[in-house]
Amino acid sequence: MARFDQLENMYDLGLKPVMLRSLIRQYLPAENHPLNLNNSCFELPSLVSIVQTHCLLSELDSQSIDPKLINTWKSAVDDWLSCLLSLLSSDMSDKCWVGICLLGVTCQECSNQRFLSSYSIWLNKLLSHIQPPADSQLVKIASCTSLADLLTRLARFPEVKKDGNLLAGKLIQPVLKLLNEDNVEAVWEGAANLLYALIAFFPASIHHYYDKVEAAIASKILSGKYSTKTLKKLGYCLALLPKAKGDKDSWSLMMQKFMISINDHLNEAFQGVEEEAKSDEARRLLVPPGKDLPLPLGGASFKGTSSERLPTATISTLMFCCCKMLTSSYPVQVTVPVRSMLALVERLLRVDGSLPHTMLPFMTSVQQELICSELPVLHAYSLELLIAIIKGMRRQLLPHSAYIVRVVTRYFKRCSLPELRIKLYSIIRMLLVSMGVGIAIYLAPDVIENASNDLNSLGGEDIETSPANTGPATGALPQLSNRKRKHGAETGSLEEKRDAPSPKVGESNTHQMTPITVKMAALDTLEVLLTVGAASKSESWRSSIDSLLMKTAINSCKRGWGNLESNIFLPHESASVWADFQFSSLRALLTSLLAPARTRPPYLSQGLELFRRGKQEAGMKLAQFCAYALFALEVLIHPRALPLDDFYSACHNSTDGASNRFLENIYSGSRKQNTSFLSDMRRTEQGGVESHDVDLYDRWLQNENENQNENENIPVEDMKDQTSRPNDPSFTNVLEVREQEPAAANADVHMRTENEIVVQPCHLEESVPKSQGVASAKAVMSPAVGTNPEGSEIESKTPLSASDRLNDTNHDMFSCVDKVDGFDHVAGKTSSTLRNAEKGSSSMVHLDSDSSMDSFPGIVDADPDTDADSD
Amino acid sequence: MNVVIASSSIDGGIGCWDLQTGAEQLRYKTCASPPHGLTTVGCRFLACSQLRDPSATSGHLLYWSWSKPQAQVKSFPAEPIKPLIANSDGTYIVGGGSSGDIYIWEVATGRLLKKWHAHYRAITCLVFSEDDSLLISGSEDGCVRVWSLFMIFDDVRRQQVSHLYEYSFTEHTLRVTDIVIGYGGGNAIIVSASEDRTCKVWSLSKGRLLRNVVFPSIIDAIAIDPGEHVFYAGSRDGKIYIAALNAESSPSDNYGLHIIGSLTDQSKPVTCLAYSAEGNLLFSGSEDGMIRVWDVKTQNITRMFRHSKGPVNNIVIVRLPYPLGRAESKSQPSSRKHELSLPPPLEKYANSSDEDMDNKAIVMLPDTIDLPSYLSSQLINDHIKQLQQQGSSAVAEMEAKRLKVDCQRSKEMFQQLRKVYDNLQEFCVNELLDEQTMEGSKGN
């Protein structure tokens, strides 16, 4: 009772020794009491969880702790250990099992000091249980696992490495004995755990037993009779085995053995479904003519299994081994037989169960059926191997990348199993990320084609809710776009038109449904394609992908928001899959909005709306993402080009004191500030045609025009070019025309007024240079009101002065301005051209011609020589 | 540790200075480099192409490891190589030949992987894009071209297209002297300088000219501010001009359109520039053999390194994974091995004789770090599950064993009890008998 009073709360350290003692009393059977399996044993997990939650064995040692408490805690842990050790030496196997398991937990939980002082005792105790006289299976398995934990902990102390290697060396023979002589699969699994710890942490200890370990594991794998899990564990050990020697040759040799073994098994399995020449070719790549064949895997040759079963388990385990070899680290550089591995992948992917004509008479339908049933597994593993090759080789895959792309795209066309398609998509994502823009240009068409097909086809999810799926689907869309329109999105009507046909496309091939997981993979792949390759040569596919992603996102969210929290009743059921799908589609949508483009993201307003809704309505994870998306898109609304350092304050200390107060103003001139501000307005209101990029691009050009040092002559053709510009985006994309027409019509009203404002500041600069800073500052605060009165005055002056010299062109230009409502930069340019036109000729023509967004690159007649001379 | 390395066209070796302290490190000997000829290969070692007698038919390329002053590996490519560059992880070395050919070698094996005719005249500079997938080359013929390495290696596609390059920019009229690339992957800008006294800014995504800046003198070197606010152009008149990219430029600039200022130290022509984002320092090499370090913000020289009497023509800033001086003495044996073994020399021709090697690649497998995972508590749960189900043979076996021991123990107990009983009985019988005899004797 007195002690109880001393405890403050559950964090009180004084509680720990007390708890530990009562746990010992409650759960650990004393030596002389028989253990009741049905009761105390089943409470072990809760015992472990209490020990782990409260760190009861950690024996925290710090200055602040009362030394008396340290002592009581220490003695409590001492008791715990002595209790465990007495359990370990019990002749009752169940007690022994309890002791072994808890010792494993202790290895993980106890303090460093305690571990270092007693690990060798524990190791010897545990070792005695995997050696004959054999104990029960569970005891053997538990000892292997506890030993593995002990080694894992031991490996974290580099100072005892030598001792560790020595002790680990003692374990190898007993483990090999377990593998070779025991005939229970579960024990092998335990042995594999221990073997893995040995190879991973103390590779030097294995060195002398290298061949024996190889033989022991190989015999198990080649027999192919056991569960995939056990085989994989053993295979992993085998793949790591070369680390024991750590030199270049043993890695290559092991890899070659794997490849030859796979090849031999395949030759046998594919008899009849592929031409003989294939197997010879593969062989030639593996063992170059004139070189010796290495010993087969495991030393001696093993007989293949009977012919009525395909050696799928063996082949897949061996391929898994190859994957693990490629993706685990190795101390030195290794020689990877890339070509033969890729050839293996290609060979496997080529076989689709069809019979070559020459083979027809030799195959029975039973044989064919057998192969067809096993092929998906083999294909999955060969794709895994391809993934591992890409991971392992990284940049050095470059010389082979074209070959891989061909294999992948060819297989993409035929592959229709969802699981395999998902893998294919992930391969493409890896290629895009690791090879960058260079590959994206060439991979894009295939990705687009496949992803569009997958996304456009009807998914299983629609069927679930409404068997007559096409009806509601078409019905929902117009309704949706109607609502959009109310929100002020003029482009919504286009959405309707474009979306309407898509269900019909789906209708035509309803039989071919795309599972939602495949759609997710397709979305993720499009996302990566956009991040990597959106900037380069994407004109042909960009607009269709943008619209596809928007459509998918809207469709995915139209039935409400999924719940990303896992449902404990249906851990893998559609509730969470649906939310994942939404998550993927929203991510892809965000990328499509953010990715660099030559035009304004056409679905910006819908996207913003969707994210806004998601932020308010969706569950935690989705809402968080929507909030992030809104945050990321803010840059599109308020573009900024920031220098990394405070360059301006250094360079231009004297100028522009006023404009420094405004964030955007610091970095863009007062005039640019105005344009960007206006374009912002345009975007938020209903969206013009320009994107952030275009604005930036225009600023370059406007800078150019502003400058008085350079004499410029803008031919009339160029002006025409410019005036046609508002319609330009429609060249690139016929679809967009429909969208922009209503937008432009609507814009008329606002834009006319804005137009004036834009033209003004540039004249302001000219005529009232001193007030520039002030004027721009005003413009920021109230763009429409602030500058209008002054501006209109000046504007009226400029045409006058200009018209003195250039009557005809002047007239032309102003009519242009009228035509192109809403495109401030054109107005700005027109006015600056007026000024420039007065000044005579120069060679800067190309820069202006560039300003028309889709003019043809390469038509540039600048001559830098004359440039230089004219100065 | 960040160091700055510099070489010259006259043999002054490769100078190496600690960026932080300014202390000179090891000087790597015998190096006379052409402009853009010095590079580090994945920061593992130094490589530099060498100037030779122009009549020589083969090129000359040297490798130095960080720890030794002498060049350790010499290669002799088929023709003189001037610009030399390695990709960021040091797997490939690309060299530009004087005939206009570009060569790609694999570093680990030294194999010449590809060679193609890129320009009509000698290549003057080479740059990799941010993700190493595009290569940008400049030539004496004034042409700047963008290549996708994927395309270069795709033998099938190569035959289907009319030209290999992605873009060819032909606006420069004279020799291209330097090229730099900005931030943003496929959306980056390229800035090129030429002897025609212009610098041109190109868009990589749109594939065309964005801006032309005319300078008062020929620009031999450019460096781009990582924020792409301005770029710096080192000129033959000894000034470093600051030209605007995103920055505002006012019409009143003294030097010309877009040129918003200059850094000047009355030096001889500026031959090379490098920008260190860490601390925002600009390094300029000059024909007087000095390397000046400018603080970009204050536009002052913060430090000067003396390289040699001859003109400095390459400056590279390298981020080393470990300090230079201690690399030999204290490093772990494994990393030492790694560092000391330089790859074989580069091959002269793409020789197909060793076909086996074509099918293989020498790779350093990626290092993966994992937290240790412990299995015991999971095992307990698994086994408990088995025990509860009572179905597994292992459990049955254990139960049997337990029962056997129990049985044994019960038998022993039985024996013991029996013994006790026997003893008791015997005792009682004896007692009784004794009593009887006693009584009998009493009675008697």
Automatic annotation (TrEMBL), chain A:
Compartment(s): Nucleus
Entry keyword annotation includes Oxidoreductase: no
Residues covered by the Pre-rRNA-processing protein RIX1 N-terminal domain: 42-224
SUPFAM superfamilies reported in the protein's UniProt record: ARM repeat (SSF48371)
Biased composition (Low complexity): 841-855
Annotated spans, Disordered: 459-513, 705-730, 783-806, 830-871
Name by which UniProt lists this protein: Proline-, glutamic acid- and leucine-rich protein 1 isoform X1
Gene: LOC107939534
UniProtKB/TrEMBL annotation, chain B:
Protein name per UniProt: Protein ROOT INITIATION DEFECTIVE 3
Signal peptide: none
Keywords: Repeat, WD repeat
Organism: Gossypium hirsutum
GO terms of biological process kind: DNA-templated DNA replication; rRNA processing
Chain residue ranges for the region called Disordered: 326-353
Biological classification of the source: Eukaryota, Viridiplantae, Streptophyta, Embryophyta, Tracheophyta
Coiled-coil regions listed in the entry: none
InterPro entries hit by this protein: Quinoprotein_ADH-like_sf, WD40/YVTN_repeat-like_dom_sf, WD40_PAC1, WD40_repeat_CS, WD40_rpt, WDR18/Ipi3/RID3
Any one GO CC term of the record: nuclear pre-replicative complex
SMART domains named among the record's database cross-references: WD40 (SM00320)
UniProt repeat feature WD, residue ranges: 116-149, 169-212, 263-304
Originating gene: LOC107944611
